[in-house]
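Q: Structure tokens for this one, please.
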Amino acid sequence: MRWEQARRLLRIGRERPTAPGLGPTADVVVGPDPHAAVRAASACVASGKGGTGKSVVSASLATLLAPRGRTLLFDADLGVGNAHILQDVSPEHTLADVVDGSFDLAVAAAPCRPQLDLLAGGSGFARLASLSARELNIIGSGLERLELEYRHLIIDSAAGISNQTISFAAAADVVLLVTTPDVTALTDVYAFFKVLLQRRPTSLPLLVINRVESEDEARSAANRIASVSKKFLGREPRYVGFLPEDRAAFRSVQQRRPVVISEPHSALAHALGDLALALLREMGRNHPHGFGRTLMRHVGYSRV
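A: Here is the predicted structure, written as tokens:
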């Protein structure tokens, strides 16, 4: 898809057209049964290792989805979160304050731009990297209430395969795996997929190859993951495209802005527009099941 088509469909900062597979944005009405209410469609952006560009991707996807409906970006790289840097905000409260009981999770949500809010993960809090089931339940319970106010929830996950990281991925409606063609990155994203399947056997993540020089390089990397996954796991992630190597990513981080805002006509921004549309289509395939309460179920605290 050409970039101008993507921009017209996504309407960055303008109207909110209907997304493929999604109805128009509507006010959320909570009836007598809160569990029956419409919840945010959730997507967890994950990777097997650091340095794949996952946070850059998350920042732009959240920015692109916001005009389609109110969006919450959850920085799940707890303790060393940097999503606030890429949105150029300094949240007054973080999830560190939520976990220790100082503030409700809803109070911690900081506005970034119209229709986009951020839950900051906090930086320099080592204990947040390994939360207890009770602490994860506090986050899940808060999100269960808060996600009623949003149409989209983007989870910017921590790298690796910790129990905490896998719990976040397993609770999301959609998982987007971000990797590079580097052999270590491919090995680690396969490991992430393997562990995710152990937690959620029905999971079928999307796969994007980042920082590639050509489409052939991306498809070669995707085919390697597909081949190994199908042979040893019996299923494979679904390849949805690639993101080119582009210095615009570096410049956007230096400017503390998503690349789709700082350099909207760059090759990377074009590709991210296509990826956002692919993600919207996938999120629209099923009724959102609720990230917060699913997370509580995974950590053993669900009420339903």
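A few notes: DSSP finds 13 helices and eight strands in the chain. Residues 215-233 form the longest helix (19 residues).
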